[in-house]
Amino acid sequence: MKITCERAQLQEAFQIINPIIPTRSTIPILQNIKIIAEKQTIFLIGTDLEIGLRYEIPAEVKETGTIILPTQRLGAILRESTDEKINIESDGHIARIKTKIGYFKILGADPVDYPDFPEFDTKKAFEIEASGLKEMIRKTIFATSGEITRYALTGVLLEITKKELRMVGSDGKRLAFIKKKSEQNVPQNIKVIAPPKGLILLERIIQDKDKKILITLEETQLKIQVPAGGSRKHPIFLFSGLIEGNFPDYANVIPSDSDKKVEIPTAEFAAAIRQAALVTTDKFKATKMILEKNTLTFFSRTQDVGEAQVKMKVSYDQKPFEIVFNPDFLIDVLRVIDEPKFTLEFKDKTSPIVLKIGRNYVYLIMPLTVDV
Amino acid sequence: MVKKRFIIHVDMDAFFAAIEQRDNPAWRGQPVVVGADPKGGRGRGVVSAASYEARKFGIHSALPISIAYRKCPKAIFRPVDMAKYSQVSRQLHGILYNFTPEIEPVSIDEAFLDISGSYQLFGTPRQTCVLIKKRIKEEIDLIASVGLAPVKMVAKIASDFGKPDGLVEVTKEKLFDFLWPLEISKLWGVGVKTRQSLNEMGIWTVGQLAKKDVKALKKIFGANGEHLWSLANGIDERDVETETGAKSISNETTFGKDTADQDEIDSSLMWLCEKVSGRLRQAGLKGRTITLKIRVTGFQTYTRAITVPEPTNFVDVLYQQIQKLYKNFKVRKKVRLVGVKVSNFDLAGFQSDLFQQPTDQKREKIHRAVDAIKKKFGEESVHRGRVVK
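Structure tokens for the assembled complex are given below, as produced in the milestone run.
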């Protein structure tokens, strides 16, 4: 193998693949990156078997071939160099890398030992609108569970119909639901649970200019191709394992009988709740929200720290109401809301707090059954 | 500078019997005994409370009812009406809360109050005591004895000292004048056995104990020796522990006789778990760490703790863990005391779940039902089968 390519492009590819590469693995070869040189292109491949990514960049290929190289070291060389171009030559499992001032000989691994990488079959694929996908991922993924004991909840539920895309993330204590009208040429309704790792990657890859992504669905794998477009000269191929299990019936827990409603200005509310949460501790994460005539008050009290009371004006004219909840659940969602306003709805002290943005986003928080 | 502490111990006089006399004016001035059915002298069970008139006949609480009957067959014997007494107890605590939020209920008819921060509202500490007694008399028509002292233990001794209808104030300056002439058994934690051991050492009064070498006491009684010595010297740093501000909730019980009877120990443990669970639920707390305390013959005291992943206040979870701890401990000597403590409180146990797990929901329902029954009919109205004998 003998190639010359632009260092900046190669480095960008490394930055995208790097998060996939396991830093420790029972299969040490996965800590490497696979580089395949063909015609005018090189393919860069990284996987932890659970998810994987193939990235293409243009290159001057003088000699085709494949080499497996340690990701960390190669990445460091690319980072340190200021050259425009970079040369890589392989001789068996050894790579020689030339920069203007440097020469590196790096020991690689045998390509035979590297796991097979799946192919993307464009003929089987269906199209999904790309616009809004980034937002959908961002607004649901944070609500997923980190607890392995509720395995299905560690992923995001993805529902695809001909007319609509839906995503749901929940850890049982809160739930984020988002939907979007869009055209998909799916043969039938699709419902899968995708692990967050692959979705985070997809969220990073998709650019605003992207119009469509291609998807194929196999029994245990979701394969995605982000086509070329904009500054991207080549498509990116990503696969992700799916989470097996039953996602709880989310539609059933979204209340429709909340009778108290208040409109909230996002920025002011975010500042208030963050202040009120200042006195809470890891063990006593509880804040009370009190709604009275045109006033919203947050109150927190922790035995070891003290008290906080923060007030803001809202337009509220219904029965006074109070509810206790974990303030982090609100702070989390406020980080991903770009809209200047949203609504909060309540029923009673033991029913979820319902945050809504228009008709398409719903976020639920289950209350704490204690008093502050 | 350390703020001066003023602790009050409020103890109702012959509580159960006094309530019966209050509600049946004809019984006032008569000996009234509340407890098991005497069945003409053949009854089993014990006296729960005796009016002062009955006490003149030598009748006191915990006395077998048959003996009480023999001592005074003419006395008015009444069954325990726990629902009524609990109701009055709640009224009592309601009155006490007007004087300070720092209240530690000890039992149905006694409580500690820390008035260090609030007595100025009522005048002097002594005037506060007078007012407390007055309001109890006016509002629930019962008599309380009150002890006022700089530390808890002395306040408790003082309330007993003036009974009935007592008000005993022990100032910081007069602390030793009050404490030291007292018989050693007045100290907290000195039961029959400890008293005997102390008597053998020539210690009969609190003052004698206070002047002993603390190291020597430690050798004989372990940590408790030091504790007793401190108490004798008027040192009792324990705060009035309000249930909501507490870092732990615990109950312990000393056996009448050191025991190796597994059944007796087991049912005591269950009873303690019930107590602790009930108090946790009343205070709205759940804890992760469950501790078993065992004191064996010879006064060695051991504790063993376990931390569970889910904070709990469920009695069955507590009992299961306590049993496990007890089994693993492998007690070789006879057991003198057992205790159950829950600490490491955590709010996580109160987080409701969107897709709630049904087992916990069921448990919660059972506990809520038991809470409701206890609220209506009193602490002793419902128990786990393990406790009932």
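Residues 262-283 of chain B form the longest helix (22 residues). The mean pLDDT of chain B is 87. Further analysis is deferred to the final report.
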